[in-house]
Amino acid sequence: MIDWVDPWRGTADHGGPVTPSESHTPTIAAVATAPGVGAVSLIRVSGPQAVAIADRVTGGRASRAEPRQAVRCRILDAAGATLDDGLMTVFRGPRSFTGEDAVEFAGHGGMLVTREVLSRFLACGAIPAGPGEFTQRAFFNGKLDLTQAEGVMDLISAQTSLALRAAREQMEGTIGRRTIEARDEILGVLAHVEAYIDFPDEDIDPDTGRALCDRLDRVSAAIDRLLATADQGRILREGVRTVIFGEPNVGKSSLLNRLLGYERAIVSEIAGTTRDTIEETVNLGGIPLRLIDTAGVRQAGDRIEEEGIRRTVRQIESADLLLEVADAGLPRPLLRPADVPEDTRHLLILNKADLGEHADWSGIEAVRISCQLDQGFDRLEAVIREALHLGSGEWGDHAVAINARHQACLARARQSLAAASAFLEPPADTELAAIDLREALDALGEVVGRVDTEDLLGVIFSSFCIGK
Which portions of the sequence form the region Disordered (predicted)? Predict the structure, then answer.
C-alpha cells in the first residue's frame, strides 16, 4: 500500500485517514449559502479553534452553548457593536460533518451583512475556506470515503430525480461498499498466493488454483456490474447530447421552444436565422436532455452562415441522440442534410404534419408533429424514451451510477484481475499473480481513497463550491 502526505497533516497509515495536529491545522470559514440576497445566510467555521474564534465573535456564547442545539446570539464587531443577530449551532468533533469542532451561524441574508459577519470571523483567526475544503476535511477525518465525497457534489448539481437518487445512493456509500467488498475478496486471494510464495517448495495444486480463480471471477463479475453503469452515470451527470438538425425553415427552433416550454430561439421564415448553436437542458422522465439547436444545413450564403453549418456538423459528430427535422409537406430530400454516424441514435421528425404530408413520406418511419398546433409531442417523448432505453426496467432499479474516475480505476482493476487469473492457471506463477493482485487492490483503493495522490484530491475537490 502506498503512503501519502496531504498538505496540512502527517503521513497516513496505509493510506487511511489521520488525525491532524491542532497546531498545524488552520480553522477555516466560508459562507455556505448561495451568493446573492436571501432570507437567511449560513456561515460555516471548522477547525481546532472554531469554538474559540466563535467566542471572540459572540462574546463567549459559543463555549457555553450545548452542542448541536441552536441558540440565539449576536455577532459583535471589535468595538462590541452588533453586526447581526441570528442562530448559532456548535458541533463538537468528531460529531460533526468535518469530524472537527465546527460552528454554524445562520443570520440575515443580505450580501453586505453576510460579508461583514464573515470578515469578523476571519479577523478573529479563521482563514477563508477553499472550494470543497469542508468536505475534504470530512474525507481526511474518516467521515466519508472518496465516493461519498463525490456524491455530495453530485447531489448539489443534480438536475433530475434520477440523478438525485443516484447521488443519494453514492452519499450513503453504496459504490464504496461494493468496492471494499471486492477489495476484501482480493485480499483473501492474495493471502493464499503469498503463502505459497513463502513456501517455494509448495506448488498450487489444480483444485486450489481453480478455487482461487473462481473467487477472482466473482470479483470480476461484481466489477463488471459496476462498469456497466458508467454510461448511465455520464448521462445522469452530463445529460444526453441531443442535437436538432435539418434543412432551413423546417421548424428546428420551433421544436426546441416547444420542448423547453418557452421561446428560447428566434423563429422566423427567413432562412439562415439560426447562425450558431443554442443549448438548453430539459428534464425527460428523470433524464436531462441537453438540447442543441443548430444552423440549417444548406449551401451557405455567407461566411458567418458557413461557420454555423460547420459547427452543426461538429455537433452531429459528438451527439448521443440526433433529432432530424424535416417538413412533412415538402418532397423527401434525395440526400440527408448531413452525414449521421452509424452508431448514433437517430430519430426522424416530420414537422408541419397538420398541413398535409407529401407522398414521398408515405411509409417512412418517423414521428409526425405540429409545432404550430402542439400536436404529437406525447408520441415524440415516448419515442425518445424508447430510443434511450429509459424504461423502468432499465433505469428504475438502477440507483448506482459510477463516474469517469471510478470507471478508469475499475477498468484497471478488471484488467489486473484477468492477468492474475491467467498466472494462477497451471503451471502457476505465484509471484507474477501477486503483483497483478496488488495492482488490482491499488486500483480499487483509489476508488474510495484508500490510496491516493494529492493531485487527484485537488482535482476532485476543486470542482466543489466554496462553503461545502
Answer: 1-24
55 in a labelled binding site: no
253 is in an annotated binding site: yes
| Full domain range(s) for residue 430 | 151-229+402-448
Ligand-binding annotation for 293, yes or no, is yes
Q: At which of 360, 393, 426 does a domain end?
A: 393
Q: Which residues are within 8 A (CB) of 53 and not within 5 positions of it... i.e. 6 or more apart?
A: 27, 29, 45, 103, 121, 124, 125, 126
pLDDT in tens, 37-89: 889 999 999 999 999 999 999 999 999 999 999 999 999 999 999 999 999 99
Query: Cα(58)–Cα(75) distance, rounded to whole angstroms?
Result: 5
**Residue 265 shares a structural domain with residue 283:** yes
Instruction: Say if 131 falls within a structural domain.
Output: yes
The candidate with the shortest Cα–Cα distance to 190, out of 424, 438, 416, 445, is: 438
Domain boundary pick from 353, 376, 393: 393
- Do the annotations mark residue 143 as ligand-binding? yes
CB-based contact 414:447 (threshold 8 Å): no
Residue 217 labeled ligand binder: no
- Does 165 count as an annotated binding residue? no
Query: pTM for the whole thing?
Result: 0.72
